[in-house]
Amino acid sequence: MNSLLQGVNLYLIGMMGSGKSTVGRLLAKHLGYGFVDTDDVIVQAAGKSINQLFAESGEAAFRQLESDVLAQVCAFTKLTIATGGGIVTRQENWSYLHHGLIVWLDAPVELLYSRLQEDTTRPLLKDVDPLGKLRSLLEQRQPLYSQADLQITISAEETPEDIANRVIAAIPSVLKKTVSH
Ligand SMILES: Nc1ncnc2c1ncn2[C@@H]1O[C@H](COP(=O)(O)OP(=O)(O)O)[C@@H](O)[C@H]1O
Ligand SMILES: O=C(O)C1=C[C@@H](OP(=O)(O)O)[C@@H](O)[C@H](O)C1
C-alpha cells in the first residue's frame, strides 16, 4: 500500500469518458486498495441499468441513489472510488468526497466525444448534439470539478497506465499541501 495515503480513500471525479473507471482500477491495484465504481453499485442495488433508471425514475431519483451509495462507500477505507460524472452537482456529496483525496481527471471534450461516440450506456448523451451536450455539461461543472485536491490534465496520447502513474507521482505534493493548510 502507498504508505503516504495511510488508507485514505481516493475519489476520482470528472466528465463521463474521462477514464475514472479505467484509471481507477489501475490505481487501486498500484495502491493495494479495493476498487468501487458508484455506477456499478447503483446498477447492482437497483437491478436496472443506468439508462433504465433515468428513463423509468428520472435523473433526480438516480442522483439520490448516487448520494446514498457515496454515503455508504465513505464508511470504508483503502478504496479507490470511480464516481459518476454528475456527482459533483449535489452540494451534500462534497462533504463525503472530502473524506478522502479528490482527483479530477480533466480531459478535453473532443477526447471524451471520440471515446463515447459509439457508447449507448450514458443517457445524457442521447441528444441530437452529443458533442454540444458534453461541452455544456463541462461548462456547468468545471467550477465544481476544480474544487478537487488534484487536477490531472489528460491528453489523447496517454495510456491509462501513464495517467495512473502520474496520479501516484502527484499524491505526495497534494498531501503536503493538505497538511500545510
Ligand atoms: N487513457 C485512455 N486511453 C484510451 N482509452 C481510454 C483511456 N481511458 C479510458 N479509455 C476508454 O474510454 C472509455 C471511457 O472510459 P471510462 O473509464 O469508462 O470513463 P468514465 O468512468 O470516466 O466514464 C472506455 O471505453 C475506456 O476504455
Ligand atoms: O455525467 C453524468 O451526469 C453521468 C455520468 C455517468 O457516469 P460516468 O462518468 O462514469 O460515465 C453516469 O453516472 C450517468 O450516466 C450520469
TrEMBL record:
Its EC number is 2.7.1.71. Keywords: Amino-acid biosynthesis, Aromatic amino acid biosynthesis, ATP-binding, Cytoplasm, Kinase, Magnesium, Metal-binding, Nucleotide-binding, Transferase. It catalyses: shikimate + ATP = 3-phosphoshikimate + ADP + H(+). Substrate binds at residues 39, 63, 85, 141. Its cofactor is Mg(2+). It is found in: Cytoplasm. PANTHER family: SHIKIMATE KINASE (PTHR21087), SHIKIMATE KINASE 1, CHLOROPLASTIC (PTHR21087:SF16). This is Shikimate kinase. It comes from Calothrix parietina FACHB-288.
